[in-house]
Amino acid sequence: MKAQNYFILGLIFALIVAVLAVVNDDPVQFNYVFGSQDWPLILIILGAALFGGLAVGMLSAVKVIRLKNQVKALNRELAEQQKPVEPVEPSQPEPMIEKPKQDPRVPSNRVL
Question: What is the four-CA torsion angle of 5, 6, 12, 16, rounded to 10 degrees?
């Protein structure tokens, strides 16, 4: 649905630019760094719209590439964290706990 809305807005914008370009077809003086020249205003309007679209497209592509790289890095990190943990075997056996020996001087409660 979101893509359809953007497509419709793009068509409306293109229609507005086309109408403005057709209505303004008078020649105008276009000044650039090395000189100037008379060009139809329709070419200047369409050229400006084209360069603006290219600039937006390139900036969007850079952002998309950056986000894709971030997703790849996060997926690698997630895969690393989800690896099963191997049990660690002790290097030395655990010491056995011995029962304390009963002191012979203390009588036991056992009946013989």
Answer: 150
Closest to 43 measured CA to CA, from 20, 62, 77, 67: 20
Residue 91 CB-half CA count within 13 A? 0
Q: For residue 44, what pLDDT band results from cuts at 50, 70 and 90?
A: confident
Task: Report the candidate in 46, 43, 41 with the shortest Cα–Cα distance to residue 13.
Answer: 46
Is the pLDDT at 69 greater than 90? The verdict is yes
Quick one: which of 21, 20, 19, 39 has its CA closest to 29?
Answer: 39
d(CA 68, CA 81): 20
Mean pLDDT of the chain: 84
